[in-house]
């Protein structure tokens, strides 16, 4: 079975910039709960059908039983993908038969902010870890380094402090290891 190259996780490539200049009032975010292991297949189909989407993926390196190094790109939030479109796009996405349900997002601005932060963290190349539940903590802003201006909550861990960048709608997020001198309270 051939190993596929990394596929686009944003369509169009400038999705977040396009959202800022998009004047169509009928476009909104939809959180798509996909069938198991169907996120990338759905993303390919959405791109082919010209439906805007975001599928955050993370690089995963592993070795085969014979010792060969392999790289794959796994969804950061398994079984979830985000569509930015109107109800016609929503309907066309449902026709793919890869979707369990589509949920409307009540606060699209917050989701845009959250997804943009997750994307910035992924693009930095740092190791991020998915977190399935949000944990209460101090709200902070990163003051220096590749994550400068990211906002999130500090989560105390046994290995030190980490920043939790949340996608509030899913009640999930990612964590990034930071030093105390890199953050300030908001």
TrEMBL record:
<feature type="domain" description="NusG-like N-terminal">
    <location>
        <begin position="28"/>
        <end position="103"/>
    </location>
</feature>
<dbReference type="GO" id="GO:0006354">
    <property type="term" value="P:DNA-templated transcription elongation"/>
</dbReference>
<dbReference type="InterPro" id="IPR006645">
    <property type="entry name" value="NGN-like_dom"/>
</dbReference>
<keyword id="KW-0805">Transcription regulation</keyword>
<keyword id="KW-0804">Transcription</keyword>
<keyword id="KW-0889">Transcription antitermination</keyword>
<dbReference type="GO" id="GO:0005829">
    <property type="term" value="C:cytosol"/>
</dbReference>
<dbReference type="InterPro" id="IPR043425">
    <property type="entry name" value="NusG-like"/>
</dbReference>
<dbReference type="InterPro" id="IPR008991">
    <property type="entry name" value="Translation_prot_SH3-like_sf"/>
</dbReference>
<dbReference type="InterPro" id="IPR036735">
    <property type="entry name" value="NGN_dom_sf"/>
</dbReference>
<protein>
    <submittedName>
        <fullName>Transcriptional activator RfaH</fullName>
    </submittedName>
</protein>
<dbReference type="GO" id="GO:0031564">
    <property type="term" value="P:transcription antitermination"/>
</dbReference>
<dbReference type="Pfam" id="PF02357">
    <property type="entry name" value="NusG"/>
</dbReference>
């Amino acid at each position: 079975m051939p190993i596929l190259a990394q596929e686009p996780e944003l369509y169009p490539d400038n999705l977040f910039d396009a959202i800022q200049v998009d004047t169509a009032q009928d476009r909104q975010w939809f959180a798509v709960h996909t069938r198991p292991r169907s996120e990338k297949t759905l993303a390919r189909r959405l791109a082919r059908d010209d439906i805007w989407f975001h599928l955050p993926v993370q690089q995963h390196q592993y070795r085969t039983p014979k010792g060969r190094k392999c790289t794959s790109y796994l969804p950061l939030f398994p079984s979830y993908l985000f569509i930015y479109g109107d109800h016609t796009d929503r309907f066309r996405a449902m026709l793919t038969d890869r979707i369990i349900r589509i949920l409307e997002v009540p606060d699209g601005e917050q989701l845009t902010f959250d997804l943009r932060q997750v994307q910035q963290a992924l693009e930095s190349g740092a190791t991020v870890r998915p977190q399935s539940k949000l944990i209460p903590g101090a709200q902070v802003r990163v003051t220096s380094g590749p994550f400068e201006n990211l906002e999130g909550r500090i989560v105390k861990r046994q290995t030190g402090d980490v920043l939790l960048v949340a996608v509030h709608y899913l009640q999930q997020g990612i964590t990034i290891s930071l030093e105390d001198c890199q953050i300030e309270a908001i």
